[in-house]
Amino acid sequence: MNTPFDLVGSVSPGRDSWRFKVRVVRLWSVSAFLYLDQVNSIEMVLIDEKGAKIHATIRRQLLYLFASKVAEGNVYKMSYFSVMPESGLYRTTTHPYKLMFEMKTKVQISESSKIDLYGLSPTSIDEICGYGPDHDFLVDVVALITGVTEEREYVRDGKVCKMIVLELSDKSGKCGCTLFGAYANQLKDLLAKNDVGLPTVVVQFAKIKMFAGKVSVQNVMNATKIHVNPSIPEVVSFKQAMVVDGAETSVSIAHIGHPIKPSFEEEFLSKYPKTSIGHLLELANDGIYIVSAVVVGLVDGQDWWYPACKCHKSLTPDSGSFFCKKCDKHVFKMVPRFRVKLMVDDGTAECVFVVFDGDMNILVGKHCQELVAGAKAQNAGFCPPELEIVKGKRVKRICSDVSIIETFDAMSIPNEEVDEEVDEEVGEGVDEEVDMIVECVEETQLGGFVGGLIISPKFSKAEHGVNVGAGTVESEVIMV
């Protein structure tokens, strides 16, 4: 008997008179690239009674029509869509096409017990490791949490963000799972409700990544969904089939990883030796030291940003595109990131410090892409007046907290020579955290913004620089 509804699996271009009965298994909003407080689109994943899934988008111009009509978890009768090819690195389904809401799209609330509530497509850890980081599709993982790190804090885009790393295990193997921001908080709340034994976690719509040389998964901002010990068929089947030594008798999750990143107070006031720039310039060995200094001005004629790959490494213009040495491939999209050189003086000497994206975001209070857009992609020879920061020794961390600076200044610099022996492992954890990336599924805004910047990817230095704020003392910072 013919059904009055089309099957999601049959969707293809060439018509718009589609009629579906589907459940919204996931729905989230995507912010505009330069205006994070504005919604650019609403993304969703739809599933029909056959279990077929497809991605759908409500673009910004139609939000006023549909934003209040669609909610996650509900079943709807929907009709009239345009169909477009699906592509990108963060595909939520394996369907080759996606649906676009149009002015004449109809949405009507409905019910159906035949349509799955969660729409899970579990992927084993062995399969995840086999796919590797080049896999374009988001995956669903059902696994035991057999290890967890301490919650860490790091700075991203000028904001302090929390991060936690899990060890996931199933009968095929183990892998890491990194959760950022609200996802880290959500997991803590869910684990607090766990009774006895190792909890089973469901991470839906996760991205496969390579971290510290190993394949892992991490959340995709707003798209990923997390469940702990949910009463759903896939989890029941997993628990019945799962065989891990000690899994049935374990009463707590093992602690894994390195110690958490020290606080500002610990790092700036007690962890590392205090010194002066004059003494720093005389040191023969590399190390981590603390200095208190003022920013005199920016270094003339120097680049203040660089084109970065999604892996955060700098890109080299090549044949009309960019080449990333780390990824070993050409890319056509980049993200501007800060690399600012400042002349710094503490009264004993002057030197140049280089400060990168995370610390610059804190001190400037703006993202690099905002300043690049305002500067129309100008680099060397032009510096926006908002900029202020550091080089010489690589900056690990910056603090502008007034109370810490006052305490720091009250501490005398030891007269004896600073011990030049430094633990080489210090700072590795920080570098690892910085390399972790929180991704967004929607990339069209980034592409549109960057498009004008990479038509002719040449970043030559100007012959004569512009001195911004030279000779003035604008701010005081202490630096690692």
In words, what does this structure look like?
This protein has 480 residues and is of the alpha+beta class. The protein has 3 domains: 8-110, OB fold (Dihydrolipoamide Acetyltransferase, E2P) (Beta Barrel); 125-255, Nucleic acid-binding proteins (OB fold (Dihydrolipoamide Acetyltransferase, E2P), Beta Barrel), CATH 2.40.50; 264-479, OB fold (Dihydrolipoamide Acetyltransferase, E2P) (Beta Barrel). It is built from 11 helices and 22 strands. Strands 14, 15, 19, 20, 21 and 22 form a 6-stranded antiparallel sheet that branches. Strands 1-2-3-5-4 form a 5-stranded mixed β-barrel. A hairpin with a 2-residue loop joins strand 8 and strand 9 (173-180). The longest helix has 11 residues, at 182-192.
Quick structural summary:
Residues 293-379 form the Replication factor A C-terminal domain. With 480 residues, the chain is of the alpha+beta class.
Topology:
Elements: E1 19-31, E2 39-47, E3 53-59, H1 63-66, E4 75-85, E5 97-110, H2 125-131, E6 139-148, E7 152-156, E8 159-170, E9 173-180, H3 182-192, E10 200-211, E11 214-219, E12 225-228, H4 233-241, E13 254-255, H5 264-271, H6 277-282, E14 291-298, E15 305-308, E16 316-318, E17 321-324, E18 329-331, E19 335-345, E20 350-356, H7 357-364, H8 368-374, E21 398-399, H9 402-410, H10 428-435, H11 444-451, E22 476-479
Parallel strand pairs: 3-5, 6-13, 9-11
Antiparallel strand pairs: 1-2, 1-4, 2-3, 4-5, 6-8, 6-10, 7-8, 8-9, 10-11, 10-12, 14-19, 14-22, 15-19, 16-17, 17-18, 19-20, 21-22
